[in-house]
Amino acid sequence: MTQLETELYSVREELTSMWGLVHSQLQKTLSALINLDRDLAHEVVSIEKRVNAAELKIDRDCEDVLALFSPVAVDLRFLLAALKINTNLERIADIAEGISKFVINADSSFKPQLLETTKVVEMFSEAIKMLEETLNAFENGDASSVRAVFKQDDFLDDINRNANDFTIEYLKNAPEDLDQALYVVSIIRKLERVGDHVKNIAEEIIFYLEAMVLKHSSKKSLQ
Asked: Helix (H, G, I), strand (E, B), or coil: what is residue 37?
């Protein structure tokens, strides 16, 4: 391997490790939400420091490779995509931390019927699946499979749009759960942003693999 290839391999390994860490943060946050596991939620908040440190190192390493080797073509696209993917992963981790803080501050376990009616668990699971699929596409160099993420993001958007209606319907029969319902709506809003960040990651994977810029593209061209 050339020195450039060695450096690119190192960045790739760091980025996939960051991906796995953020994926784990989301999974732990979902489990903490369902089970009101405050210890697990505190763990997510604590690990956020590792995510921040990893983001800074990846940024620094990408910038060093760009400065020292002046890569071109696919190598340049990889580094530019890695920088943006790294930023979006860190923001997803921030959202997981924010949701975990909701769990820590909750007075009691979230009512199963509330979680079911608002579809928040379904939404959470889909967001985690989207993150898994982008990682698989990145590792396998498969730009075609990552396009499924755009339709999955539409699914998250639909739940977000209907969140108020779902919540109002639930509160008609359980007005005493107003505080919990407000927490859940806030979580749904955060999960919608997770979907947006994963979609951004998918766009960067396509840019890296196909040299196609999809930012601001119509939905038709994305799918």
From this structure: coil
Architecture of domain 3-222: Up-down Bundle (1.20)
Structure tokens at 168: 């109002």
Name which of 51, 55, 2 is nearest 25 in CA terms: 51
Rg (CA), the chain: 19
Q: Distances from the Cα of 81 to the Cαs of 117, 146, 177, 186, 201, in angstroms?
A: 38, 14, 44, 30, 8
Whole-prediction pTM value? 0.94
Alpha helices of 141-216 — where are they, by DSSP H? 143-146, 148-173, 178-210
For residue 21, CA distances in Å to 49, 89, 195, 203 come to 11, 9, 17, 21
- The answer to whether the beta carbons of residues 37 and 107 sit under 8 Å apart is no
Q: What is the pLDDT of residues 93-141, one digit of tens each?
A: 999 999 999 999 999 999 999 999 999 999 999 999 999 999 999 999 9
Separation of alpha carbons 99 and 22, rounded Å: 14
| Domain positions in the chain | 3-222
Q: What is the pLDDT confidence band of residue 213, given thresholds at 50, 70 and 90?
A: confident
* 216, pLDDT greater than 70: no
